[in-house]
Amino acid sequence: MSDTAIFEGIVVRAHGNSFIVRHNNQDIPCKIRGRLRFKSDAVAAVAVGDDVAFALDKGGAGVIESIKPRRSMFFRPAKGKISKKQIIAANIDRLAAVASVKNPPLKPGLIDRFLISADIGNLTPLVIINKTDLDRPEILQELKRGYEAIKITIHFVSAKSGEGLEALTEALDGHRTIFAGHSGVGKTALINRLIPGLNLKEGEVSEHTDRGIHTTTVVELFELPFGGFVVDSPGLKVLGIWDLEKDDVVNHYPEFFDYACDCRFPGCAHGPEPDCAVKAAVESGKIPEYRYRSYLAIRESV
Ligand SMILES: Nc1nc2c(ncn2[C@@H]2O[C@H](COP(=O)(O)OP(=O)(O)O)[C@@H](O)[C@H]2O)c(=O)[nH]1
Ligand SMILES: [Mg+2]
Ligand SMILES: [Zn+2]
């Protein structure tokens, strides 16, 4: 063992039990020491964003020996095991729900699901709507009004025309953000614009690779020019709201709180109940309808 040196680095790519660790701007393929791999809890597994110590043998192969204490962890449910969680990224502090104006179509309900998972993971949420060069539907103003009312920043951008990219760069640089959004919304294109010279391939549909039971999701970290990074995981579709209880959903809709105390029934779920003050607020335009609809749909689905 005397001829093995130990180095420190950050995990920038994870695919199953294969990792890339960046050390002094060099990317080193690493496996993990068995004792780390076989610890049974998800917390023990190595993830993108981890600061690690690794050994390098004379042949240049790396083995991750230990993980530095984490500031945060972000999970998703492990495939086929409802109660097991899998760590996707460590040490991140923000979640960006990324959607596009069209191609694929804008689905506010999906954005709200991502925002709930940000809440659960204690991450600062933001919303990015890409492809504004294609269309400017009226719903955009409603989204802006709705999210700003609950102090969530929304960015309208186009990776193609460049609209909004300066403000987005400012919002992300220096932070550790995970991108959550359907395939095709332009996550890779945006990362290319944020990091000049990166030139990732756009329009790759990586989702089929994630269909089968035995395949694993690739998670990658892209360092930003002024510090911080963006984490992208092409196969990631639905994030950790799997153990949410029906009655917890409303806790993620802060704009309902002020009205909820005026509902006729104390346990009002703001569904079919009579004299519901939340529904009245939706009807009078005080609560955006898209938020109310996503609330009902998410409550129904959990
Ligand atoms: N019109 C337009 N197309 C875009 C924009 N951003 C990305 N695209 C295209 O949308 C497709 C999917 O983009 P990609 O970045 O791979 O999406 P991802 O799956 O979220 O990473 C590609 O063909 C891109 O060229 C944009 O702002 N405007
Ligand atoms: Mg992509
Ligand atoms: Zn109610």
Through-space gap between termini: 52 Å
Structural class: alpha/beta
Q: Name the ligand types.
A: guanosine-5'-diphosphate, magnesium ion, zinc ion
CATH architecture of the largest domain: 3-Layer(aba) Sandwich
Shape: globular
Q: How much strand content do the residues show?
A: 25-35%
On the 0 to 100 scale, the average pLDDT is 89
The helix content, as a percent range, equals 10-25%
Describe the structure.
The chain is α/β, with parallel strands linked by helices and 302 residues long. The chain has 3 domains: 5-67, OB fold (Dihydrolipoamide Acetyltransferase, E2P), CATH 2.40.50; 73-232, 3-Layer(aba) Sandwich (Rossmann fold), CATH 3.40.50.300; 246-301, Ribonucleotide Reductase Protein R1, domain 1, CATH 1.10.40. 23% of the residues lie in helices and 26% in strands. It has 8 helices and 13 strands. The strands form 2 sheets. Strands 1-2-3-5-4 form a 5-stranded mixed beta barrel. A hairpin with a 2-residue loop joins β1 (5-15) and β2 (18-23). 35% of the residues are buried. The structure holds guanosine-5'-diphosphate, magnesium ion and zinc ion (ZN).
Which tags fit this structure?
single chain, 302 residues, alpha/beta, OB fold (Dihydrolipoamide Acetyltransferase, E2P), Rossmann fold, Ribonucleotide Reductase Protein R1, domain 1, 3 domains, 5-stranded mixed β-barrel, two-stranded antiparallel ribbon, binds guanosine-5'-diphosphate, binds magnesium ion, binds zinc ion
